[in-house]
Amino acid sequence: MLVFELVLLLLLCSVALGWVARRLKFPYPIALVAGGTAVGFIPNLPQFPFDPNAILILVLPPILYQAALLTSWSDFKTNIRPISMLAFGLVLATTLVVGAALKLVVPDVPWAVAFIFGAIVSPPDAVAATAILSRLNIPRRIVTVLEGESLVNDASGLVIYKFAVAAALTGVFSVVDAGEQLARVSLGGVAVGVALAHVFIAVHRRLGDPFIEVLTSLTVPYFAYITAEFLGVSGVLAVVAAGLVRGRYAPEIVSAEMRILARSVWNILVFMLNSLIFMLIGIQMSDIGEKLANYSFTQLLGLGLFVSAVAIIVRFAWVFPVAYLPRWLGSGSHSNEPRQGNNELAIISWCGMRGIVSLAAALALPNTLPDGSPFPYRDLIIFLTFFVIAVTLIGQGLSLPSLIRALKVGTDWSIKTEQQQVRAAMSTAALAAIDEIIAAEGAPSAWADQLRAEITARIVLAAPDGIDATPRSELNDRLRRAAILAERKELIRLWRENIISDEVMHHLEEILDYQEAHL
Q: Which residues are CB-neighbours of 107 under 8 A, at least 6 positions away?
């Protein structure tokens, strides 16, 4: 019972940390890392029993699936080369270099275990990247590359991680066999994900109830992961492929009500899973600190700083040469691909924040080898993983806004231009549809004058050459928000004074929620 009370207390602490992060306007993963670090210093915490294999199954599918759903397929295809070079080439390079660095400073670590650690910290985290980048004004092409990398490299890093764990457990490793298996499990995972995505799309079209639709969407990543693993292929790639395919069809098959509901559910779920992992690491770190008593504080600090520095330096050493290699070779095969300048490449190199995926992979390490002996250096790997996460997420994450300002990497205004063009086109289509219905019904044209006026105003505000377009649009949004707030306060007053029933109150509250969500 004490363990349950402890988990409940830490969950409340996670909520408080999330609130603090929101008030201070910095990404909540940074607050959770700080909270997990603080919990680790609490002595004699009771340990929370969990199955290491269950961690990956519980945590990774929904996190990767949500990131895949939100990925722009067109932008992803446009930047496929830099994304691939980061998500595959850099992951492999980081695995090898960081693993070799750990072997250098701790010679007794088996090579397989060293490469396990390299694979664990090789992929920057999709949740961390999105949480931090969403608050910064940087060009869209940088965001696309970083989010695309964070999505795909989770899959590649975890596939390498599983091969390294298998090598550590069996003591047998063959480069040829590993290459063949990697190709098989990767292609098979993608095929399973694509197939299941189309199955769920067909099912989704026939549901028609937002609550059932949301519940069904929650089962997709778990079903894809478990099915792929059962078939002996990559569950991670199956989840990513399913999310990419389903995200492509989501605008056609998902209702507005379902989107509003699903967005809240998914955000809460991802926050809960992040909180769960950082609660677990906080509890684990208290026990791990005692198990690493044979290392001095100075040794642990030095090890952590060394491997963190290696992970950061490898990214810089990879990003710049890979970006300039096609230019040096005079290749014209990627002439349509957007090119990044030195300042943008510096931002991409600095955005190597590790997060929940690395932490979940570390916690998922088996406790023992097949012969019953303890898994070698498991506690040290978990400690160093958390150290790298803290350094990259807190250090790089908090310094990123200052770096962007110093390098003068500004906002990509083409996004606003696109929004203006789309709004104008949508409003024009709406006016045409109104006129068509009015004519078909034989109704007086004046009946739709007010609605036409509102839509025409939107076209004027969307005009790219309108000098007052942006200020007027912002003022209009503020006025609408103020009106909704006043309506909500009056609704609550009438309800508290028992002038209206609960049923009426909840119905009108839902309407206001949709209006506010629309803004």
A: none
Expressed in angstroms, the distance from the first to the final Cα of the chain is: 45
**472 found inside a domain:** no
Q: What is the pLDDT of residue 194?
A: 93
E-state strands within 336-471: none
Find, among 403, 408, 452, 397, the residue nearest to 430 by Cα.
452
Residue 339, pLDDT score: 63
Which residues does residue 368 pair with via DSSP β-bridges, in sequence order? Answer: 374
* Neighbour-count burial for 320-351, b at 16+ CB within 10 Å, e otherwise: eebbeebeeeeeeeeeeebebeeebbbbbbbb
Task: Give the separation between CA 336 and CA 137, rounded to whole angstroms.
Answer: 24
Q: Which of 143, 152, 144 lies closest to 122 in space, CA to CA?
A: 152
CA distance 437 to 276: 53
Residues 393 and 502 in one domain: no
My answer on whether 510 and 444 are in the same domain is no
Within this chain, do residues 420 and 408 fall inside the same structural domain, yes or no? no
Q: How many domains does the chain have?
A: 3
Residue with tokens 């076209």: 459
Q: Which structural domain, as residue segments, surrounds residue 508?
A: 478-519
* pTM as predicted: 0.73
Give yes or no: residues 462 and 484 share one domain: no
Angle at 28 between CA 285 and CA 89, to 5 degrees: 75
Other C-beta atoms within 10 Å of 139: how many? 20
Distance CA 170, CA 166 (A): 6
With beta carbons less than 8 A apart as the criterion, state whether 174 and 111 touch: no
- The answer to whether 243 touches 64, Cβ cutoff 8 Å, is yes
Same domain? 457 vs 491: no
CA 289, 297, 14, 389 dihedral sign is negative
Which is nearest to 315 in space by CA: 386, 385, 396, 390? 396
Alpha-helical runs (H) found in 463-500: 469-496
State pLDDT tens for residues 226-258. 999 899 888 888 998 898 888 878 767 777 677
C-alpha–C-alpha distance, residues 177 and 173, integer Å: 8
CB 362 within 8 A of CB 382: yes
Instruction: Kindly report the CATH number assigned to the domain that includes residue 263.
Output: 1.20.1530.20
